[in-house]
Amino acid sequence: VVLFHFGISAIPGGFSGVDIFFVISGYLISGSLLDDLERGQFSIVNFYWRRARRILPALVFVMLLTCIAALFILLPSDLREFGLSIIAASTFWSNVFFWKTSSYFSIDAALRPLLHTWSLSVEEQYYIFAPILMFLIYRYIGKRWLTT
């Protein structure tokens, strides 16, 4: 994915690395959740706490640095949309925000310094809803629906 963004086409379709990451991440998180459910050790609070401790420090750091840089780099007319993108990224909604306001492959994508947070938003949305859904299915429908 990084090589793709630098224009190095050593591997065609480098952008599909994000899809591969989503599949692997979903598989590992779902497996971990299922193990916790089967052992009776599932805690939604602990699950969310571990995710927040892992992701939020880096996200906050990147957003602060990006805000400082944006003040010097972006035109005043672009700062309003940038402010909206900060809100979208900090609420894990940037995938929807950028889908509605721009294109990932457009010429002006370089003017959207938080465009890359769309994938983090997708991942976080999965982290928010998957544990709840898996818990409800496990508890009320049965574990066989989660393992087949």
Structure description:
The protein has 148 residues and is an all-alpha fold. The protein has one domain. The protein is 74% helix and 0% strand. The protein contains 7 helices and no strands. The longest helix has 30 residues. It is elongated. The mean pLDDT is 87.
Question: How many DSSP-defined strands?
Answer: 0
Helix/strand/pairing category:
mainly alpha
Low-pLDDT stretches = none
Instruction: Provide the residue-averaged pLDDT.
Output: 87
How many independent structural domains? 1
**Order of secondary-structure elements:** HHHHHHH
Span between termini: 32 Å
Computed CA radius of gyration, to the nearest angstrom = 18 Å
Q: Total number of helical segments?
A: 7
The amount of beta strand, in percent, is under 5%
- Overall outline: elongated
For the report, how would you describe the main beta sheet?
none
Percent of residues in helices comes to over 70%
Feature tags:
148 residues, mainly alpha, 7 helices, 74% helix
Helices, strands, pairings?
Layout: H1 2-5, H2 17-39, H3 44-73, H4 76-90, H5 94-101, H6 117-141, H7 144-147
Helix pairs in contact: 2-6, 3-4, 3-6, 4-5, 5-6
Give a quick precis of the structure:
By secondary structure, the chain is mostly helical.
